[in-house]
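Anyone able to model this chain together with nicotinamide-adenine-dinucleotide?
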Amino acid sequence: MNNQKLELFDVKDKKIAIIGATGILGSRYVEFLANKGAEVIIGDIDIDKCNNLSNLMKDKGQKTLPLYIDNTDESSIIKFFSEIKSKYGTLDVLINNAQIKPEGFYNPFEKYTKETLMKVIDGNLVGVTLACKEGCKLFLEQGHGVIINVASIYGIVAADQRLYDGVENIYFPDEKFSSPVSYAISKAGVVQLTKYLASYYREKNIRVNCLTPGGVFDNHDDRFNSQYSSRTLLGRMADKDEYNAAILYLCSEASSYMTGFNMIIDGGWSVI
Ligand SMILES: NC(=O)c1ccc[n+]([C@@H]2O[C@H](COP(=O)([O-])OP(=O)(O)OC[C@H]3O[C@@H](n4cnc5c(N)ncnc54)[C@H](O)[C@@H]3O)[C@@H](O)[C@H]2O)c1
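re: yes, here you go
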């Protein structure tokens, strides 16, 4: 790669597929990358939201493709990539950003059922693995590709359950709220999956990195916000747009020498 000739952070005309593209952060990535000239494939289980977001982008003159995907259904994953292949013939970047919260997700550990555990691991880890597998088939054919898997600080350090002291549990009002075990173990797996694939495809011009975000402020209750914020070095939760630049870096040639890396952006949460 010749840094002299390339605009390092350029994603213009790159085909970037985001799975889990219509939620709090995914929709920001769609907007940000489309504004930079990328052609974003808006992949999500909520097809209405995909269509709405795509129409919003169209009104701004940007090209996006809304595309249904249920990453807990292997045939849906296969169809997703085959539709991308028939429409564009190519895919530059795959971003695995989906998370699932089935019934029972917020159960306390003692009441966690195998069914809920399996569903979360299915969407947060197995589905991500299978999406990487199908995406990489395309990458191998074309000779290049980039994957960004999205984990969480709760996948690299233990959830600080003290943060939920005094926070109302809207799911089980009689019990203390806790951050779920299924989330922690599935997100930890995403970090390891990233390293595995970076090593596996080391000679195939496929780079695989991970983004580990800290908590994003989304109208949380004051008590939680203040307890969470005091646990970070920067003294606050993240703004919804504060991961966009990292996504751009990881999507573009600016990160050409980076693979297998877990980029932790957490306001200093995990260093203390
Ligand atoms: N928001 C945060 O504070 C935070 C912090 C750390 C990590 N993260 C991670 O960042 C990512 C995005 O977070 P968010 O807050 O925007 O999440 P979100 O819940 O708002 O969005 C998740 C998206 O995934 C989609 N989805 C659910 N099941 C799916 C399936 N089976 N197939 C395809 N799509 C499916 C949902 O429809 C939704 O659009 C997640 O992986 C999350 O774990 C978020």
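The CA atoms of residues 78 and 236 lie 40 Å apart.
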